[in-house]
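User:
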Amino acid sequence: MCPRIAPSPAEQTGNFLRKVIDAVRSQDFPYDKRVPKKVDWRAYDLAQAHEMADMLQIIRLSVEAADRRLASRSKRRRGRGHPPTPAADVAKALLMQSYLGVPNRVAEGIVRLLGPSLGLSEGFSYKTVERGYGRPDVEALLDEVLALSNLPVKDLEKVFAVDGTGNSTRKRQNYADARAGQKREGDREGTKVVGAFPTGDHDFVYSVFVVGAVFKLIASYRNTTRHDVGELAAFPTLARETQARHPAMEVMVGDGLYAGRPQCDLVTELGAIARFLPHRNVTLKRLGSVGWIPMLMALYRDPQGWLRAYYQREASESVNSVIKNDNPQPLRKRLEGRRLLEDKLRGVCYNLKRLCYLHYMVGLSVTPVLLSAAG
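Assistant: Predicted structure:
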């Protein structure tokens, strides 16, 4: 009878890790939950009461600041014919339209009603609003507004969560149900779902974004209508853009989809640590990776501390829920480019609205930062 060979230290470590991961995924791990933060409901009520007025002000300030920053980087050339409506004016109208969730014709009336508060000298037709979704200069302005919205927390936010979702284009459509059905279908066929977006008769607009764990502002945003690319395709761009806007980034967290060596290596390259929940069959094989083993060994040495950082990924889930609750109606646009911009507008509006609330909830300085950014 052959003597029983004791497992090596590496095998013991791997076995322990797999047990911990299995317990976490089965929700059987004895995790010490964080103490819930207290909410200043009086400040929250005040923020709600002032929300509309504050949104008008922050839309105006942020778009004008973004317009000045872009103007300082490039010279604008005037073409032939009647000059178009300034991109800044159209961007203000689109943001207000997205915030209120109204169609183009109603947006024309909103511009006439609230134009002076938005800094618009005159109104314009709903066709100008409609065509604004196809203007590259308007989209560039909105991208700059998203970047500007992160300035008030630039040196304060340290932990970021990445996640993906899908926004429907018709009423009888739910992304979570489609995703769950995709996984059930994969289980029946014995195939592994590795992150490709679910398909259907009417495709979603798929978005992937990075959110700060404390202030819950979207740091970077990408979307697509292609269902064959998956969330991971956007991760390198999102991670680098987040680090550029938040040089103090220390931790990047995400679900099991991101638990791969390339993702860990990229986060390590950016000077942060990765907290992506590995799969149950995880191994300690390095395979040339510099960030994989440190992430796993941190989980081995201190499961409670590792999970305390990992569970901050709920920030991305809560932001996704807020955006969907604020925008219960499906996307209205039919052309692909316009539909993508309509989806992005929801993320930009969320950030601006979140800044309005943070001013009251935590005393965050917003207006001075935007004014200084405008130069």
